[in-house]
Amino acid sequence: MIQNSVMLKLRNNKYFDSTFATRIEIDKCKNQYEVFEKVFTTVAADNKLKWQEIYHANNKSTRKFILLCICCILVDKFLRSEFRIKIEDRSILLGFYKNELVRYYYRFN
């Protein structure tokens, strides 16, 4: 589902270090939707895009698709760490397509 070239760009991406969580103050999120909001809006602003452009990206637009993968992986990670949400519940919150991106990433990383 994720091409090798995309996987290479995902590895060691700047958003995956611990400073990103601090920067967006993920520990202050009271609701699960705030995690989605903070991750997508911050990544979009950093890349001069609207969050919707990232959220609706497909694999034909490599740059936006990489950002979508990053956002989904981060949302999954933060929902797990901050809200202790089980994998089944996180997959429902992310939706089938976006959950598959996360699962594929973890399977091969």
What's the helix and strand layout?
Blueprint: H1 4-10, H2 18-23, H3 32-46, H4 51-55, H5 62-83, H6 87-94, H7 96-107
Report on the structure:
The mean pLDDT is 91. The longest helix has 22 residues. The protein is globular. With 109 residues, the chain is mostly helical. It is built from 7 helices and no strands.
Summarize the structure.
This protein is mainly alpha-helical. It has seven helices and no strands.
Uncertain runs = none
Question: How does the overall form come out from the CA principal axes?
Answer: globular
Range of helix content? 55-70%
Rg over alpha carbons: 13 Å
Characterize the quaternary organization of these chains. Answer: single chain
Strand content: under 5%
**Mean pLDDT over all positions:** 91
Give the SSE string: HHHHHHH
Tally of helical runs: 7
How would you characterize the largest beta sheet? none
Distance between the termini: 14 Å
SSE class: mainly alpha
What's the count of strands? 0
Throw out a few tags for this protein.
mainly alpha, 69% helix
